[in-house]
Amino acid sequence: MKKIVTIGGGTGQFTLLSGLKNYPLNITAIVSMADDGGSTGRLRDELGVLPPGDIRQCLVALSESSQLLRDLMNYRFEKGDLKGHNFGNLFLSALEKIKGNFSEGVEEASKILDTKGRVIPVSEQKMNLCIKLNNGKILIGEKQLDHNKDVRKYGIEKIYLKPTVKIYKKALQAIKNADLIVIGPGDHYGSILPNILVKGVPEAIQKSKAKVVYNCNLTNKKGQTEKFDLDQYVEEINKYIGNNRIDFVIFRHQKPPEGLVEKYEKREGKKSIVEFNIGKKQKRSYRIIEAEVLRRERVNKNRNDLIANTRSFIRHDSNKLAKVLMEILELDNKKAIKKII
Amino acid sequence: MKKIVTIGGGTGQFTLLSGLKNYPLNITAIVSMADDGGSTGRLRDELGVLPPGDIRQCLVALSESSQLLRDLMNYRFEKGDLKGHNFGNLFLSALEKIKGNFSEGVEEASKILDTKGRVIPVSEQKMNLCIKLNNGKILIGEKQLDHNKDVRKYGIEKIYLKPTVKIYKKALQAIKNADLIVIGPGDHYGSILPNILVKGVPEAIQKSKAKVVYNCNLTNKKGQTEKFDLDQYVEEINKYIGNNRIDFVIFRHQKPPEGLVEKYEKREGKKSIVEFNIGKKQKRSYRIIEAEVLRRERVNKNRNDLIANTRSFIRHDSNKLAKVLMEILELDNKKAIKKII
Fold first, then answer.
1. Mapping DSSP to helix (H, G, I), strand (E, B) and coil, where does residue A252 land?
2. pLDDT (tens digit, 9 = 90+) per residue, B214-234?
3. pTM score
4. CB spacing of B98 vs A108 below 8 angstroms
5. Which residues make beta-bridge pairs with A30?
6. Cβ separation of A90 and B90 shorter than 8 Å?
7. Chain centroid to CA B11: how far?
8. Is the pLDDT of residue B311 over 70?
9. How many A×B Cβ pairs under 8 Å?
10. Tell me, what DSSP letter sits at residue B188?
């Protein structure tokens, strides 16, 4: 079986893995440990555990257990001291405490949830994301990205981890042996780059014999990736990895519906939909794969699942993304890919 | 398969079920919903759920899943907002919320934990235990029994539920069809009698064709069952059920070790070890089965299991109790029963 490694966190990786799990693949999801907001942040602070939120989303995506068990993992308590806590996060934190180690806890969770594939923290060390703004101010903690108004006001100069942390040996092994490494989709500064900032990750990706694919984000965030186009995303990731290592970039073939675009521009400013300008560069170190990857069904806010949250309504489609990746792996007929540039 | 129904709650029922599950029996555990202390009490107050604690203990006792999953259900958080909460209680409360109904949540938990047998709340209504003391004062809430000093000082005149609650239809069905109904061991006022106070339970036990066995408690509690002997326990339970319905009483054949007896008398007063005085009554409506049912191994306080808590050190042995019950069901050779009076 072909070995596929995904790198990211959050809802983007949930979407990606939900599609990939339907194919005969050996899947390893590598997940950032930088999250420190919400239920995850409270558990991190109060119990001293590693952040469970993104790991949980990946486990649920890959789980072949009952819908009920998956609903349970996503259940959020609504009242009392437990308010805002996600049951699956408590499950992972309790397992970490019992096993005495986060990654062993995750392995056990994986057995209980009967996952197709492995979920692995990028590092076994706690990660503290530092965000340097264009006004020189330094913010500490991933949650600042979406909750500190200065980010939207001044924009980000760069991000880094302090102290530096080292790649987890199983993540290193997975990257080394992969046939395909898939980066994103996911929050650029919150999920994607924090993985690549981990010592050993860029080197491992550089050395791996795998094809490296980047699922380009569909939308920008004000103050973060404001007005980014496809090339800016790729160049920044390539800068962190080194060696122009990205081979393919998957990009939407069609535009999102006009109404949605307007809604985004109202919230995130002009050019909040990521564009690709073919004439901008003469030569690129990566090939661009245009494909129909947008989710077309209306996202139902009330469904008790992860895709249903309100963060964003322009989203990738799990199955469409997976189909394109299978074509890149040459395991499927070329039907999903519309154009290779 | 013979149908056995156990009635109780807490550690006593955990002990009983842990032994019974090794036999080819159709087991139904009926559990009191009166608990309102600790983690269970907080969930009841804050989330408005039915009390999960005793149900959880029964599910774990009957679970055939991995040791890890059972350890997880008993895991207690040690810090932060979650401090004191038991993971298994959160699990049951989340399932109740998702399914919209406690008993359905318990059924799902039972599937996830792969239990051998069913665990059923005695009622689907919330139970409020009222405790009338000998000085006329009325205390409300099961947790008062062990935490209100007036109980130890004045003693209990009677207990009742206000408002009255009705038996859950599946509990009724189980009692009706049982071959053997086993009451106790368990906290007399906290677990055993609250089940029998539920409207429909005494009538169902009276009508059932089952043999009714009472596992007599081994120790007394100051202010509650102070100086009770075997006959007082049985008479009080018979009074609540009506019709002298208890057929057999299982009682220890040997005394607990002298050192332990002293320890109990120091804490709970004289006669804190339940005695049986054969000459006290000329005729009894129940037969007394003497058997070696005491747990002999030292209870290790540090083991992550339910038997290991410090509430009591004179305990029933799971396997010995089960053996005697199998003999009463005539499914085993008469070896465990020492004497029938």
1. strand
2. 999 999 999 999 999 999 999
3. 0.91
4. no
5. A7, A120
6. yes
7. 7
8. no
9. 76
10. I
